[in-house]
Amino acid sequence: xxxxxxxxxxxxxxxxxxxxxxxxxxxxxxxxxxxxxxxxxxxxxxxxxxxxxxxxxxxxxxxxxxxxxxxxxxxxxxxxxxxxxxxxxxxxxxxxxxxxxxxxxxxxxxxxxxxxxxxxxxxxxxxxxxxxxxxxxxxxxxxxxxxxxxxxxxxxxxxxxxxxxxxxxxxxxxxxxxxxxxxxxxxxxxxxxxxxxxx
Length: 199
Fold this sequence. Notes:
Blueprint: H1 8-59, E1 62-75, E2 86-99, E3 106-107, E4 112-116, E5 121-125, E6 131-135, E7 142-143, E8 149-155, E9 168-174, E10 180-186, E11 196-198
Antiparallel strand pairs: 1-2, 1-11, 2-8, 3-7, 4-5, 4-9, 6-8, 9-10
């Protein structure tokens, strides 16, 4: 009439069921933990890459030391010569550059430049023929030290013409990581009897 509380058959079945549920919970928890750890690792890698790229975009800038212009006599057709009816114009722009404090090495041949005048926008990539060394430990067109100085030379061909007295040009130099340096160059009003001017 009364069943025994200590029935060994029933106790064994309950114990196996509990064990199966426990193992299933452990497996689910292990799989969930693995997914979370993988996701956390992926997010950490992405965050590190984003932080590094962001810091490069801010820090890896070119610093402009000075800018000068070469003045020559140009005739009405834009040809540089000393004969006939000529006008003094800036035919070449030379920009002395180094790297900003905290910047990594900067390959000048990967730098893009943009000249904005009153009537045109010129955009291109600095070529090896446009770079000359002023003072540097190596002659590879890479700014590796703050003491390195290079000159970027832009001819009238690069500027799509010559610059007149009083002209203003906005120059933007952008390094490969995307850090930009913007400066405004202004040609002096008078270029008479000058062979070079500070811009």
